[in-house]
């Protein structure tokens, strides 16, 4: 047991200066990369956000860009779409990957083959796969998505070009030509749902491989004892598997939350002119502010707001969900 001082501070053996110097020497390359490519850009973006900055630096305007952002409907629309995107991808990814991991873990042959197959979408270049996916979800009647849709006797859809909500499209499909206006405002568009499907296809395999590793680390005698006590498969999953893989699920959910709020490449490739207002997450809005409106100062302010939102959500998730994670004794 490590002795503790009266003030509650841990009494640690002093590390020799030579060993400290060696440790800092090994850490210095990584710290330098973090400083140059991680911390410094954030500081510089904060500096830019306080200036009227287009092609060159202009007047210092303080928090003017942040005040403007509070009245900008584009910011709130970007946050709403980002929230739809996160809520549509993260739960589906975790549920599907957990189910696939449990199925693969219990098969005796071909486990390695299926692991590679499920992991392929993740390692495929995202630009290439997004371009192919855009072709598959083309509004043309001969596209694969519409062929699958028409196989069930349903009308062809515009998919990535549809700015109506997926619920509105569903209501129209069952014969309801009129519906409340809030249906389009409160649900993601069919274009965004198509992007969500792409995101799930890409990342489910990654999550499955990580969860397979977590399942392999669970001692088999837990299941043997549960079986002797008369537990059925669902009870074993609920009381043994789920608690023991909860740290991995927590890690994957945290990474997914940060990733969905930073998503850009595939959304930029998949977005279409007719559905841009229903598919542009905040990162794409920031990109447009820089390269279309040439307003780097305002874009930097939006980026800082996005950074703060990600930080707050991550801390809240860590505090609320982290309490329910089982780390063992």
Report on this structure:
With 329 residues, the chain is an all-alpha fold. The protein folds into two domains: 17-66, no CATH class; 68-324, Orthogonal Bundle (MetI-like fold). Helix content is 69%, strand content 2%. It has 14 helices and two strands. It has helices spanning 17-49, 64-70, 73-106, 111-123, 126-136, 144-151, 166-173, 182-186, 190-216, 220-228, 233-262, 265-270, 282-291, 296-320, and strands spanning 51-53, 57-60. The chain has a two-stranded antiparallel sheet. The longest helix has 34 residues, at 73-106. It is globular and about 75 Å long. Mean pLDDT is 88; it is low at 1-12.
- State the CATH topology of the largest domain: MetI-like fold
CATH-derived architecture of the largest domain? Orthogonal Bundle
Count of alpha and pi helical runs: 14
CATH class assignment of the largest domain:
Mainly Alpha
* Low-pLDDT ranges: 1-12
Attribute tags:
MetI-like fold, mainly alpha, two-stranded antiparallel sheet, 329 residues
Would you spell out the secondary-structure blueprint of this structure?
Layout (H helix, E strand, L loop, with lengths): L16 H33 L1 E3 L3 E4 L3 H7 L2 H34 L4 H13 L2 H11 L7 H8 L14 H8 L8 H5 L3 H27 L3 H9 L4 H30 L2 H6 L11 H10 L4 H25 L9
Antiparallel strand pairs: 1-2
Helix pairs in contact: 1-14, 3-9, 3-11, 3-13, 4-9, 9-11, 11-14, 13-14
